[in-house]
Amino acid sequence: MRIHPKVILKLMFYTIFLIMFVKYAFADNHDLNKKAFKKDDIIEVNTGLEKFNVVKVSKQDENTVWSKEKERFVTADGQWCFVTINIKQQGDEIVKKEELHCADTKFGMTKNEKIKELEKQIELEKARKPGYWELFAEFYYRDSNAPIYCRKYARPDSWFKRPGNVCLKPTGEWEVIN
């Protein structure tokens, strides 16, 4: 039994159409939904001490106009504290609340504080230990008759895309040689 080519083409067209329809209908497009991130309106907030304009974008709580958590700090008695600032609309009034949260331990550091602490640890480790190329240069140049250790590197901005040369000094630093 032979199937006519037009029937095969129709079947392929309907299959592709069905796949595209299902993909479009059940697409998970909430992350690119512009309505969810639409700026509702600009509100002028006057807290008595400060006066500024705020863009209302919060979707989880309709009454929250603006919310921010400040960096953590240590008090004189050794407690770790941070301040949260919430500006909410309660009825016809706009209320600014600053809440102080404290704990006896360092638990709950912010991401920026953790990154800074890790960077300090990395710098300390680098200061204590020689790097890979320093060790390699020390091993490679141990013999006084060793030739200079060089490598080619890509130069995509050069004419004709010619590679450059870089050579390792006995101190473990790389030097560009033309």
Q: What percent strand? A: 25-35%
**Could you list the spans in which at least 5 consecutive residues all have pLDDT below 50?**
29-34
- The Rg value, from CA coordinates, equals 32 Å
Specify the helix fraction band. Answer: 25-40%
- Global shape: flat
Distance between the termini: 73 Å
- Annotation field: number of helices: 3
Largest sheet: 4 strands, antiparallel
Helix/sheet category = alpha+beta
Overall strand count: 9
Give the topology string: H per helix, E per strand. HEEEEEEHHEEE
Describe what this molecule looks like in 3D.
There is one protein chain. Strand 8 and strand 9 form a beta hairpin. Strands 3, 4, 5 and 6 form a 4-stranded antiparallel sheet that branches. Strands 7-8-9 form a 3-stranded antiparallel sheet, with no helix packed on it. Among the domains are: 71 residues, no CATH class; 48 residues, no CATH class. It has 178 residues and is an alpha+beta fold. The chain has 3 helices and 9 strands; from the N terminus they run H-E-E-E-E-E-E-H-H-E-E-E. Helices cover 27% and strands 30% of the residues.
Question: How are the SSEs ordered, and which strands pair?
Answer:
Blueprint: H1 5-25, E1 42-46, E2 51-55, E3 64-69, E4 73-74, E5 80-90, E6 93-103, H2 111-128, H3 132-140, E7 150-153, E8 164-168, E9 174-177
Antiparallel strand pairs: 1-2, 3-5, 4-5, 5-6, 7-8, 8-9
